[in-house]
Amino acid sequence: KTHPELxxxxxxxxxxQNIYQSTFIEEANNSEFLEQNNNEINNLLV
Length: 46
Fold this sequence. Notes:
46 residues
């Protein structure tokens, strides 16, 4: 990665989104949202 600090920041933001979504949002697509975010995190870790 050219900017590992930005990758870390992106991952932290996605994780915070997951926490917020899981805690405060009651929606039918909640698991789809979390799965999409987890996929993005995995892509950033490669």
